[in-house]
Design goal:
With about 300 residues, this protein is an all-alpha fold. It is built from 15 helices and two strands.
Length: about 300
């Protein structure tokens, strides 16, 4: 009986991990359900989980949101979001069959904390010698959701990786980043309703005719400069993205320099163009950070 239960638990875990990492942006009709998505739903932001276990379901408009690889407290109670979950880019490099075989074995041992000590992202990367370029690609493709110590992973510092995964408490910065991700979705919502040729053309191009809503590949500057979105539109989107039980701006969010974004776009473009590449950080993330008046 114990063996059967262990087999069942392992099979369930593998299913969760694979489903988390196989959400293709242009194929799956899924969405992270958060309070900002439906203000009248009466869902508490903490319960809905900005950086905890997300609720995933089809939304009424069948939009394909950029969700990436995710995990959560339903997998392990002592580690953060991404400790036991694996991005699709890394699984593709390993090969799904090899990955499944490893995951079955790695998650056959459970410690006293209910954790799989041999089944985590660092062990996976180390065992299969996943190159840094694949890791960086995975991180940049979904930096809003990957709460990694990216430097620890790239330098193969297992102690730092473990400490970060165990000690991470969702910070104000993490919450603001989650709101920024939702802000971009809300801007897409407003953009979709615009009827001018400039906005319609950009919206169709960047979303592949409304089938994919990228947030990690597009800067706020690009979204504004290529459309007719106004400062009022931005403020409306931010209010909705940061709402809690219908109260706008109640959830942590960045204080954006809207004068720079809407009044000095050429200056902002020049600032973006001179951003230095540190080898792993997303330029989109760094460009958006130029608008944060409340620097971390």
């Amino acid at each position: 009986m114990k063996k059967f239960i262990m087999f069942l638990m392992t099979a369930l875990l593998i299913l969760v991990m694979i489903s988390c990492t196989s959400m293709k942006k242009t194929e799956e009709n899924i969405v992270l359900k958060k309070e900002a998505e439906t203000n009248n739903a009466g869902i508490d932001r903490e319960e809905a989980g900005m950086n905890t276990t997300p609720i995933i379901e089809s939304d009424e408009e069948n939009k394909n949101y950029d969700v990436g690889a995710i995990g959560g407290s339903n997998i392990c109670s002592i580690h953060n979001f991404g400790y036991h979950c694996y991005p699709k880019e890394i699984i593709a490099y390993i090969g799904e069959e090899r990955f499944r075989e490893w995951a079955n074995n790695a998650h056959s041992i459970i410690d006293e904390n209910g954790c799989w000590p041999d089944g985590n992202l660092f062990c996976c990367i180390e065992l299969f010698d996943v190159p840094n370029e694949v890791i960086i690609e995975a991180y940049q493709n979904d930096f809003y959701n990957h709460d990694w110590d990216i430097e620890a992973i790239l330098t193969k510092d297992s102690v730092a990786f473990e400490n970060h995964a165990r000690n991470t408490v969702e910070s104000q910065y993490d919450k603001k980043m989650s709101t920024e991700m939702l802000l971009k979705y809300r801007l897409y919502d407003i953009m979709e309703k615009k009827t001018d040729e400039k906005t319609e053309s950009y919206f169709k191009m960047i979303t592949n005719n409304g089938t994919n809503y990228p947030v990690c590949k597009v800067t706020l500057y690009e979204m504004i400069s290529n459309t007719s979105l106004t400062k009022a539109d931005f403020e409306k989107a931010l209010g909705n993205a940061s709402s809690v039980n219908g109260e706008k701006y109640a959830y942590p969010h960045f204080d954006y320099d809207l004068d720079l974004l809407f009044g000095e776009a050429d200056t902002l473009a020049d600032m973006i163009n001179v951003i230095e590449d540190n080898g792993y950080e997303s330029k989109v993330k760094l460009a958006d950070a130029l608008l944060h008046k409340d620097k971390e």
